[in-house]
Amino acid sequence: MFPSWPMRFQQQGSSKSGEESTDSGSAVNTLSTTAPDSPVSRKAAVEQKHHHLQPPPPQMDTATGIPAAAKQTPEKTLRRLAQNREAARKSRLRKKAYVQQLESSRIRLTQLEQDLHRARSQGLFLGGGGIASGSISSGGAIFDMEYARWLDDDHRHMSELRTALQAHLSDGDLRVIVDGYMGHYDEIFRLKGVAAKSDVFHLITGTWTTPAERCFLWMGGFRPSDLIKMLITQLDPLTEQQIMGIYGLQQSSQQAEEALSQGLEQLHQSLIDTIANSSINDNMHHMAVALGKLANLEGFVRQADNLRQQTLHQLHRILTIRQAARCFLVIGEYYGRLRALSSLWVSRPRESLIADDNSCQTTTDLQMVQSSQNQFSNF
């Protein structure tokens, strides 16, 4: 009565339903494979893809309830702000130190100008063509400012060294202070080397020193042998080996001083001959030769400073650490007294200068009268 095709479809459907009842998982898989292009399957696939792509929920801090990522960002920002504040603080300190250094240099330069004005008002020309004419080279002026700063540091080092000796510090702590003082002297030799390149006459004439110091000046500084003579009597007690080492250093220093002095004398004589033998026709040629010979002055000053520096280092090696501390202290006090003597000399009132002139003239007259009386008494 009915066609056979629907009956087979129904039986196939019933068999499929039986299979679904036995194994639901295999039925779902069979459905998905048989109808992959159905709207329901596409929707399920899209939802499953979105489920896999969705990021995990943010981790929360159990103590504050704030996400951990939001908490890490302010910490990094605060650390960066702290670094910026520290850099700004260091920059302010550097700027403050620079301003203070400029201010101290300005004050020192003002003091030098006042001293020069006072010396000129008293009729005392402190030597040197540059100061007598009221002009000074830029290299010489820079060196004077650096030397003034070095003197301020020298007072500080001496005070520190004196306090260390009085406190009876250990040899290790005292060695640190003495080495620092040795480096302080190395600094002035470095400054003089720079100044010799720009204005060697400023160093040789000694216009950067006081009048009393210029009495003992040798090639822009002290004589090492004279310094050793002064120190020998101040460093007792010394061992026999130390005495032999110091006397050997003194002898070698004297030999080096004589060699340099002879070389400088030969240079002076050569300059005299070059300038004296020049004529109007070849005057410029002789002046060029003389300038070339004057350039050798820088070499003499450098060798003399090297001899002075090596003498100080050799004394440091020969002496014990406490003897070396006393040695540098004696040197500093010696030159401090010379500078004080120069200040007293420059600041003398005019009345005392006139009185001294009168007394010198009276003494000379009395000596002449006494000598004449002695001559007549012989007759």
Which short descriptors sum up this protein?
extended; mainly alpha
Helix amount: over 70%
Helix/strand/pairing class, anyone?
Answer: mainly alpha
Please trace the helix and strand order, writing H or E for each element. Answer: HHHHHHHHHHHHHHH
In one word, what is the shape? Answer: extended
Q: Which stretches of 5+ consecutive residues score pLDDT under 50?
A: 8-37, 122-134, 372-379
Largest sheet: none
Strand content: under 5%
Q: Tell me, rounded to a whole number, the average pLDDT.
A: 76
Helical region count? 15
Radius of gyration: 46 Å
Distance between the first and last residues' Cα: 195 Å
Oligomer type: single chain
Count of strand segments: 0
Overview of the structural elements:
The chain is mainly alpha-helical and 379 residues long. It is 81% helix and 0% strand. The protein contains 15 helices and no strands. The chain has helices at 4-22, 24-34, 39-53, 68-121, 129-132, 138-167, 171-198, 200-205, 211-214, 224-232, 240-276, 283-294, 296-318, 321-346, 350-378.
Explain the layout of strands and helices.
Blueprint: H1 4-22, H2 24-34, H3 39-53, H4 68-121, H5 129-132, H6 138-167, H7 171-198, H8 200-205, H9 211-214, H10 224-232, H11 240-276, H12 283-294, H13 296-318, H14 321-346, H15 350-378
Helix pairs in contact: 1-2, 4-6, 6-7, 6-14, 7-13, 7-14, 10-11, 11-12, 11-13
